[in-house]
């Protein structure tokens, strides 16, 4: 298992009720399953489903979420949850 540091942005942060948390997982899909278990609110599930996921700054397509996570030198992976947003000029 790999240590995963999850950062929630925008509406994902509001839905999770925290800015970040840590968990153990082997894949992005496993990490998302842990998050769903920890935050059973249907509103969180909707936000998570609609969000983009980044691992160490790189977008992870839904079809690649079963790939094994590769930890950095500290033995950690940084996963970010970015909900859809609107705005701009």
The H-and-E topology, N to C, reads as EHEHHEEE
The overall average pLDDT, rounded, is 94
Shape: globular
Unreliable residue stretches: none
The CATH homologous superfamily corresponds to Beta-grasp domain
Count helical runs.
Answer: 3
CATH topology: Ubiquitin-like (UB roll)
What is the C-alpha radius of gyration, as a whole number of Å?
A: 13 Å
Percent of residues in β-strands: 25-35%
SSE class: alpha+beta
Number of domains: 1
* Assigned CATH class: Alpha Beta
**What is the number of strand segments?**
5
Q: Please tell me the CATH architecture by its name.
A: Roll
Taking strands numbered 1, 2, ... along the chain, how are they ordered across the largest sheet?
Answer: 2-1-5-3-4
Helix content: 25-40%
Roughly how many Å apart are the termini?
43 Å
Protein name: Molybdopterin converting factor small subunit
Organism: Microlunatus kandeliicorticis
